[in-house]
Design goal:
Number of helices: 11
Shape: elongated
Structural class: alpha/beta
CATH superfamily of the largest domain: Nitrogenase molybdenum iron protein domain
Radius of gyration: 20 Å
Strand order of the largest sheet: 2-1-3-4
Strand content: 5-15%
Length: about 290
Amino acid sequence: MKVVNFTIGISLLLSGCSEINQKSINKDSYKPSSNKIERVVTLTSLSTDIVSSISNNKLVAIPGSSLFKDKIDYQNLPRISQGRTPPNLEKIVSLKPDLVIGTKGFHDKILGKLKDINIKTLSYELIDWKTLENTINIISSKLDINSLEKSNEIINTNLKECVVANEPNKKPNVVVLASLKPILSPNSKSWAGNLLKRYGLNSLTEDLSSKSEFRGYVNLSPEWLVKEDPDNLIIIQTRPGQYADFETTNPFSNLTAVKSNQVYRFNYYGLINAGSLESINNACLQLRKIF
């Protein structure tokens, strides 16, 4: 059972781009067109989705992402990055953006270079549901849209499956297996851990201290998993059919969740890496099946 794709993915999610390979840009080579934001370059799939939901015609370039495959709204927009390749600084500058949006930590270097040549930037950090709402509000405000009204519209339309009226009285216990070799599971300091809590699910790894190289994730042993014997298991897949033999592999085959057919397979995007509004909404829809 290989977990190479997940390890690469979560490394990209939790660590910054180490290098910006483009040539240095002269500060005088860029002059902002106006104070109004009309041209936006996004460095993440989530910010792309948010800007598109607010004002699609303001997008001038987006990151390359498998999440945008077959998405008509994004087909004709240039890509400023692909996979593990850092965003192309020269290409971004040539597009004369009024605003470039990236994430804290991951895009600090390139956003710093853009700031140096007077290009407006915005960086956000997604920790929990509240920071997602705040990010939508801030982007709306930057684009000169009624932020609170637009935020509510996006949440009630694009994230309708994530709207939780009341926590259920019963709190099913669950363990999320983000990878199997090594066994990694999110604690409360991760996006996944917070989303589970939002649904009132009792994550058995919520309060475990992280000694993993990935912030917000804990290493588990097979013995720990057998001892805790969760009623529900969520397995993260980075590709269809991954871990197809999990239920028949020792010691996992004897777990209560396996015997009672309470093993759920989630996509990497949505629960581990927020990815997009659509992938978050899909994760919320699946979480509803557990309680």
